Every structure is written in structure tokens, then in C-alpha cells.
Amino acid sequence: MSRLLQIALAAVLLTSPSQAGDAKLQLAKDRSVEVIGLDSHQIKVLKESEGDWPRIFVVRVDQAESASRPSIVGTYELQADRLTFRPRFPFESGLRYEARLESRGLLNFASTAPTRLVFEIPSPPEGPRAQIERVAPTDEVLPENLLKFYLHFSQPMARGEVYERVHLLNSKREAIVVPFLELGEELWNPIGTRVTILFDPGRIKQGLKPREELGPVLEAGHTYTLVIDQGWPDAQGRPLQAGYQRIFKTKAADTTSPDPRSWRIVPPSRGTREPLQIEFNESLDSALLVWTISVKDNAGTSLSGQIDVAVDGRSWKFTPEIDWTSGTYSLNIKTILEDLAGNSIARTFEVDQLRTVERRIEAEVVERRFIIK
């Protein structure tokens, strides 16, 4: 018997799910559809019949009864006690959808009747739409072995969209084929406002098959355009306020590790809460800078305070919670800190096995001392 249910994200269920054994269908918070409550036997059978998942677990637009209704394109994932379907494109608001679990005896359900769920995605609420605040790194000229981009948004965004919504064009405005490493689990921060996009390392490092077959993604002396589609929905299903285009040029590869000994430290004045400032001689990874550098006093106690990183990754500031006093302090720098090409303080991203590596640091942390008089 049908009844109205309110579930996560205000999705409206128009038909309550029937059950086949203990398994049932539900709409998850991220707007994927899940078969939950599978037992160990059913999980084992599913693992052995991955090719049958689109036949067993079907999601369609719920229109007039018709056997010819096409299934929605998407991906399936088997985890713990559930099978999850994620549509390639988000479910549209205002449409009714039907999800069906056709057992056909394959999973040995208590009932042979299909599990059925009908749901509708409500229209997104009114309010300001998300904007792209910035794309880091911000340099106009980037090394040809650039490792990653960070996309920063003003509001939480929908997941599962990155590789459909972000494109890289060459100087002829032609799309570059598979420029990014397409991961099954996108690299979002916990609140969904920043995502990391990695260039395919196989097309960066010399001698690897992807580079030999497809060539490098970026080449020195060329011009490229990063494009982000306006249709990328936020977590509420609303498209971006505007799309994004960024033109940048490339230079020779950066194959040198950052060296903390070359950084310029600007000490604050005693008796103040002026910020301690570090100026780098190149742009460093702005996200890593937030947590890879800390300050300790002469007793080895870590200081509490506010860290601010320049958007171009060329400077770092620390404002303490209490006034500075005279003495010797130390910067504690984690050696995983990287530049734009993925070269860390500990080692370079591209290691040439035919030559001696001049500088490799095994320690996890290095120090730079400074004095406040």
C-alpha cells in the first residue's frame, strides 16, 4: 500500500518499498539508490555475478507502463551489506523514478516478487547558487609537470560529477583526452567545498606506458584552458551561478625539491601579536601549507594560533594567541610539503634512476630556527 515518506535530503518516496527477504531499497543521503540488508550469501553471489547487476538492480524514469523504458546509465558498487547505484547524471527534480530489484531466484530471496521503490526528487530550495571562488595554483605560468588543481567552491557541491564537468583544452580549443586521474572516490574535503584533481601521473613520469602511448598532458611553451561546466550541481541540486574558464601557459618541468633553507623568515616584534611570516621562492601546495608547518618555542612547546596562506602559495603567516616573547623559536616543517609539481622536501616526484639523487631527506620533519629579540 502506497504512503508518503520523507527521507534524507527531503526526497519524497511515493511508494513504500516491498521487501524480498530482509533486503530492501532506499534512497541514500547522497541521492544514490541502495539495496540494503543483504546477507553474506547474497553478497557472495553478487561478487560472483558482477556482470548481472544492471539486470538485477534496475533504475528507470517512472512513466507510463512500458517494457521498453530504458534503464538509467550509472555505476554499481558492492560494499559490506549493500549494493549501490549512482546515476551518471543526478536525478532531475520533478521527475518520478522507479528502482526495482529483480531477484529471479539468483539471490535466493524469500519472495520472488521484485522489490520496488518509487521516488521523486523535490525542486531545489531557493537561495544563492554556488560559485567557483578560485582554482589553485593561481600562477599564470605553470610547470609542464603540474600535479594537481584545487577547485574551491562557495557552497558544498554534488559528488560524482568531477570528471564530467571539468575539461582541459589545448591551444586549438580541442579537448585533451583523459588528462586527469579518474578516481572512483573523488578527493573532496569533509564539507564538500574543495576538490582535488590530479593529473595522470602515468603521463607525467618519463618512461611509463600512458605517457608513451598518449603523450604528456602538458608541454612547455603551450597554452591551455581549464573549463568547468555551469551545469555542475551543488549539494541541493542547483547548478553553478556561472561556469569557469582559466587560460594558463606552461614552462619547463620543475624537478627540484623545495628547500626550507632558502625561505625568508620575517620575525615579529617582541611583546606583540604580529604575524610570523615566511616567504617562499616558489609557489607551494596551498592546501598542504595549512597543516605541514608549525611553530614551537624554546622549550619545544607548540604554539596555538591562526595560520593564513597566500592564495598563490608563496607566503605563510602565523598569528599567535598570546604575545611573542624574546627567545629562540623553531619552525617544524613536515617533509611531505610539496611544490606544484609534486616535489616534496624529502624527494623529487620524478626520480631519475640513472643519476645520483643529490638530495633526499629521510626525516619526517625538518627545523628552521629564528630569534625574537
Could you name the key traits of this structure?
3 domains, Immunoglobulin-like, 5 helices, about 10% helix, globular, four-stranded antiparallel beta sheet, mainly beta, 24 strands, five-stranded antiparallel beta sheet, about 375 residues
Any idea what the radius of gyration is? 26 Å
Question: What structural category do the secondary elements indicate?
Answer: mainly beta
What number of domains? 3
What helical percentage do the residues reach? Answer: under 10%
Number of helices: 5
User: Distance between the terminal alpha carbons, to the nearest Å?
Assistant: 79 Å
Largest sheet, spatial ordering of strands: 1-2-9-8-5
What percent of residues are in strands? 25-35%
pLDDT below 50 for ≥5 consecutive residues: which ranges? 1-21, 352-357
Q: In CATH, what is the class of the largest domain?
A: Mainly Beta
| Major sheet characteristics | 5 strands, antiparallel
> Which CATH-level-2 architecture of the largest domain?
Sandwich
Overall number of strands: 24
Shape: globular
CATH topology-level name of the largest domain: Immunoglobulin-like
Q: What string, H for helix and E for strand, traces the elements in order? A: EEEEHHEEEEEEEEHEEEHEEEEHEEEEE
Give average pLDDT, whole number: 85
